[in-house]
Amino acid sequence: MSEQAMDAIQKRIAAMxxxxxxxxxxxxxxxxxxxxxxxxxxxxxxxxxxxxxxASYSYLGLVGHPKINQAAxxxxxxxxxxxxxxxxxxxxxxxxxxxEETIAxxxxxxxxxTYSSGYVTNLTxxxxxxxxxxxxxxxxxxxxxxxxxxxxxGAKFLRFPHNDMAALENRLRQxxxxxxxxxxxxxxxxxxxxxxxxxxxxxxxxxxxxxxMVDEAHSVGVLGERGTGIEEHFGMPNTIDIKMxxxxxxxxxxxxxxAGSKALIRYLRHASxxxxxSAALPPAQAAAAKAALEVILEEPWRVRxxxxxxxxxxxxxxxxxxxxxSTETAIVPILCxxxxxxxRMTRAAQRRDIFVLPVVSPAVPSGLARLxxxxxxxxxPDEIEMAMDLLEEAGREVxxxxx
Length: 403
Ligand SMILES: *Cc1c(COP(=O)(O)O)cnc(C)c1O
Hints:
Helix content is 44%, strand content 17%. By secondary structure, it is α/β, with parallel strands linked by helices. β1 and β2 (43-46) form a beta hairpin. It binds pyridoxal-5'-phosphate (PLP). Pyridoxal-5'-phosphate binds at residues 117-119, 122, 143, 145, 186, 190, 215, 217-218, 246, 248, 256.
C-alpha cells in the first residue's frame, strides 16, 4: 500500500516495523531475548550461550529458591492452577488472606490488598483514590503505571522535576487550601537507581496535608537493614499513607499490593475496579510471594550481601571510568549517550557473555541512553570483578571509554 493511502493506524504500525527492521539488520536488536535456562542465581543460558546475568530484578537472588518453589508446588497440589474467578465471587482463597497478612506484617501496617500486577495496582489505586476536582502530584521520573493511573483518574495532574523538593513545595502551594491532594513517587527510580529525598518529602506532605503514596517496586529487599523498604532505610516508620509495591521483582512471583490502614484497605476492596472485575492471583504465585517475604526476614545475609555487591559494582565501574549517574542502589546505569552507542555497548558486552540490556529513548531522554545494569545478592565478588573487566573492554571497543 502507498504511504498516502494509509490511515493513521497503518502509518504507526508501518513506522514501528521499519524502525525494528533497520535495527535488526544492524544486528543491534535486543528486545525480548528469550532466556532458555537459569543456571544458579547469576547465570543464564541465552542463544545457547551461558552468560553472567546483570539485568535481573531478582535483587536478593530468590528466583528458584527451594523454599519458595516448594510453597508454589504445594499450593498447586492443594488448590490447582487457577482461581474460581474474581476475589469477590469465589476467587478468595485462604492463601490470599495469608499473603495479605504477611505483606501487612512485613510493611508494618494494619492490612494489605493484592492485585494481579504492579501496573494494574497503580492504575486502579490512584484512580480510585482521586478523581475530578482533586489534585495528584507526581515526580517527573515516576514509573509509567503511575503516570497512567494519574491520567486515568481525571484528577488535576501536576508534575515536578525529578527529586526537586523546592519544586514540589511550589506545586503544593499552587493547590487551593481546601483541595484534596495526593503526592506520589517511586522510592527508588527504575531507570536511574537514585532514592527520593524521603525526609523532605514527608515533611512537605505533613505541612500541606497531602496524602503520600510511595511505589516500592525497587526498594523492597533493597533498602533498609532488613530489606523492608524506604521507611526502614531512613528510620521513619509509619510515614507513608499508601505503601505500594510489586510481587514481581525482589519477590519472585507476580502481582502488586498496597499496604495501609484497615479503613483504607477495606475501602479499596469495595471500590477499586481491578479488584472487583479482575481475577485473583493464582494459588502458586500467592504462595510463592508469601514464602519469599518470609525468606527475606529469615536470611538477612542476602540484604547485606546485596549492599556489599552494590558498593563493589558502583565503585568499580566508576574507577574504570564509566558514568553511573546518580545511582545509590542495585540499579546501576552505565551512560552511553546515543541510542546507537547503547545498542553497540550491549552487543559488545553480550559477545563477552555479560547479559546486560540497553534503555533508550523514549524510556529515557535522548542523549542519555544507557545500559541499565543490575547487581544482585546472587553474584560473588570475584564474578563482579570479572564482569567489570569485560565491561571495561567492551567500553573501550565501542568508544564509551577512552583508549
Ligand atoms: C515494575 C514496576 C511496576 C510494575 O510492576 P509489575 O508487577 O511488573 O506490573 C510499577 N512501578 C515500578 C516503579 C516498577 O518498576
